Give the backbone structure.
Amino acid sequence: MQRLASIDVGSNTLRLLIAEPGSSAPLRPTRVERRITRLGERFLPTKTLQPRAIERSIAALKEFGDLMGQGGVSEYLAGATAVVREAGNGGHFLNMVQDQVGLRIRILSGSDEARLSLLGVASVIPSFEGPMAVFDIGGGSTELIWRAAQGSNPVESLSLPVGVVHLTEAFLQEDPPGFEACGRLRRQVSGVLKRLSLPENLHETLWVGTAGTATTLASMHLRLQAYDPDRINGQVLDRGWLEEQCDGLAQMAIAERRKLPGLEPGREDIILAGALVTVELMERFGFCQFTVSDAGLLEGLFFELCESLG
């Protein structure tokens, strides 16, 4: 059986999916790996990828390349998101990856990122036929996409300059950060969101959160000792619980957060920013709960590869 792979080069996390495409199921994963390399570390204000972040990311991609070779991968598709897209030395980084690792990575536009994320989400939430809105809170940006109905083309997609790595570095450097810093972060995010025009019929929309912030919050809600995608997919989180988490995390030192069940190591400093962005999204668009999808951009890249191969 042919094996294919997809790689998501994110601003905080690099992810690898190796799977076998087939007719009985859209995806049969044989291996899923993730490495938090913090590629977007100290990215602002110069919009430059830092040497140590590049070094960590190339090391992770070398691991991925080895795993793909060991797994018998015949074809792959790799995509890089906001931080590489915006970096003055983003092209240099990708050239380094090709020279040192032998992997070709495509820079995804904001609309590409949104479209592929929706494709991945739709693979695990296939039965909902009405309008759907997906949010993907990344390290360097937040992607929003609206689907009018099942099978329709996206009616709108936006890439917002709101990312948890940048927000954490700008607002949440105290340990613990406290409520005042959280308020400043929320006002910054609110200012960005207020400039957006709202789609119609939002009250009929299913809101879905994908990527690290949403899945980590779901894992924390379930108090998972080991991450389980099957339990994450379809988990519903409500605003009341989320605001309680924000209040608790604001007063909690990093060392304390590391003890929280379900909180992935390496996310203890940025999960608060992600939770605060989520609350602001709920405030702006008027939804009180959302469904979590473990599948997203990584799976969307895989499905696009399958389609290109026929």
The radius of gyration is 18 Å.
